[in-house]
Structure formats: C-alpha cells, structure tokens
Amino acid sequence: MHQPAITGTGVFTPSQIITNDELVAAFNAHADLYNAENAEKIAAGLLEPKPYSSSEFIHAASGIEQRYVLDKTGVLDPEVMHPWLRERDDDEPGQMAEMALEACTQALEMAGKTAGDVDAVLCAASNHERAYPAVAIEIQDLLGIQGFAFDMNVACSSATFGIQAAADMIRSGSIRSALVVNPEICSAHLEWRDRDCHFIFGDVCTAVLIERAEDAKGLHFLIKSTRCATQFSNNIRNNNGFLRRTRKDHMEDRRDMQFMQNGRKVFKEVLPLVSKHIADHMADEGVAATDLKRLWLHQANKTMNDYIGKKVLGRDPADGEQPNILQDYANTSSAGSIIAFAKYSKDLQPGDTGLICSFGAGYSVGSVILERA
C-alpha cells in the first residue's frame, strides 16, 4: 500500500465580478418587467407579484458579497437573466476544459511536475457540458497526459469523492498520480429570476494533484483518511437531462429545469448529517477536536459553516480555523472547499492536521483528513 498526498493545487478565477448591488439592480428591474407583463393576473389574484431583492437580504441569508462569473452581461440584462457563452466548434476546446487547463497547470507547477508525471485525470463537477466524450478526456488531451481519464458527478461533493477515488487508486498501486479537477459553471444552471436563490452561485475551477508521498518534491499534505456517504433526497435537484425532449412541452423555458432547492429542509436535514459524519470520521481515526488545526468546509452558506464548525470543534471556531471564501466567490459547488484549502493551508506546520469536507445534493458528504508533511 502506498501513501497518497496532495502535492499541488490550482484555482482558475474568472475575470468578471458581479457585486450584490449589481445583481439586485438587475433582479429588481426584471421583477418590474415581470409584474408589468402580468399585471392583470396579479390584480385578479391569479399570480403573485415578484418581490424585490436587496443586498441586505442576500448578505444576511448567505454571507455572500460578490461572485465571479464567466459572463455578467446576460446575467445583468433584465430581459435575459442568464450568462451568454460563445458556442464553440467541435474542434475547439470546450468551456470546462479550457477552465481546467489553467487550474491543472497551476497545480502541476506548484508540485514541480509535468504532464508526463500524471497517470489519470478525474473531472469531478456538479454539471458537465456534455454527456460524451468525457470532459476529463478532453482535459487529458489538452494537457498531453497519457493514461486514462473519466468524469464523475456527486454534485457539491464531487471534489472530495474524486479525491477519495484517486487516493484509493494510488494506495492500491494502480497509478502513481492523478489530477482531480473541478470546473464549475454554476451560473449556467442557476435560476437568476428566482429571488430565493438568484444570489447563490458563482463560477470557478479548482484542481489538486495527488501523488505517492514518496514522489513529492516539496511540502505536501498526506491524505490520512477519506470517507464518503450518500442519502437520497429530492430537496436539492436539477431535473434537466437528455430525456427532456421525450416529454411533451419540456423544451420550453421551465423553472423546474434549473437549480431547485427546499432551503429550510436542506438546512434542517443536512447540518446534523454532516456534523455527525465529520465527528464519526475523526473519532474512528483517533483525531480529537483539539488536534484539528483547520476546517476547509463546503462554501454554501456562512450560517451552515459556522454551525458545523462549532459542532465539530465544540466551540466557536477561532479566526482562521474555519476559513470562508464564499463572501468573495459565492457557492461554487464542488470547488468551494478546495478554494478554501488552496488559499488557507500554506501556514500550517509539519504534523498539523486539517479536514476538507464538502456536502450537498444527494444528499452527499465527503471528508478528507490531511496531515501537513
């Protein structure tokens, strides 16, 4: 058995930012258009008017202050309310693969490795821009990596599930190294016209290089243990898919074909599930709360993270113990915990223990216990 380690990380961040104030201005203009178009039905009591959003509401509900997106022009157009992304020819790199190229290159440079040192690519994300060929294989080709590649999807837990899959292959000896990459174009599946969720998501791509620890060239993190769990729930869902055209009228603009969430149920059901998952994982591995120097949690909601951090540590987390990045990036699905890890791990000392955890639709939860080497 071989010891796997994370030796490099990379984060691709889009250049365009949407602030809460910008988002609210566009949403409220859209609400005005919607209410004017449906004035008769609203007056007759057949339809509810669309309420305004506000920056104060968004920050109080989530802790989010801004988000990075691939395109803001469409999102901020009250008559469009979704990103515009250029259609690409089949012989051009896809959007997700292009994002992944930069994040993977950063991870390789950090580890002091090249494409020739990588045996596998796992593209783990909440949505993939096509069913086949696998986006991972395209990423593999663009990087010039030999070996194999495949896509996987466990929604917001995709990154931690991908880390476990890669780490297990390295432990068994079937490969020496793998890139786990998480290109998330969340702006494309978000319903920007829904006040309850229009502020949640942003775009980003993260990557981690996982290798045998014996091959590491610099400081790295040993993957001491991984654990994944799933429990079916329909409270977070996206009903879009290849069967859509087989059902009458489903090709129309339908609300249920975008991101859907029953927020209150998710909050009530996911928090105990995640807190217990982390506590049980730590207990089984002999990691006490006092041993834990850093918690890199899924970046969905500040209140959720504060709750989990307090449950796991048995107290309010001190500054820096449970870093949040969602105020800048918003929820980036599977990539959120990896952004937090990439940005807030370099200060840990050899022997320090940290834990990455992501959770979301499924329900799914994955945790990774790391030790700074």
Produce the secondary structure layout:
Blueprint: E1 4-12, E2 16-19, H1 20-37, H2 39-43, H3 55-62, E3 66-69, H4 95-111, E4 120-124, H5 135-143, E5 148-152, H6 158-172, E6 177-185, E7 203-212, E8 221-230, E9 236-237, E10 260-261, H7 263-284, E11 292-297, H8 302-313, H9 326-329, H10 336-343, E12 353-360, E13 364-372
Helix pairs in contact: 4-5, 7-8
Q: Brief overview, please?
A:
It is built from ten helices and 13 strands. By secondary structure, the protein is α+β, with helices and mostly antiparallel strands.
What features would you describe in this structure?
α4 packs across α5 and α7 packs parallel to α8 (302-313). It contains ten helices and 13 strands. The chain is globular and about 70 Å long. α5 links the parallel β4 (120-124) and β5. The two termini are 18 Å apart. It has 373 residues and is an alpha+beta fold. The mean pLDDT is 95.
Number of strands: 13
Q: Rg, please?
A: 21 Å
* Strand order, largest beta sheet: 5-4-6-7-1-8-13-12-11
Determine the fraction of residues in helical runs and give it as a percent range: 25-40%
Kindly report the average pLDDT value.
95
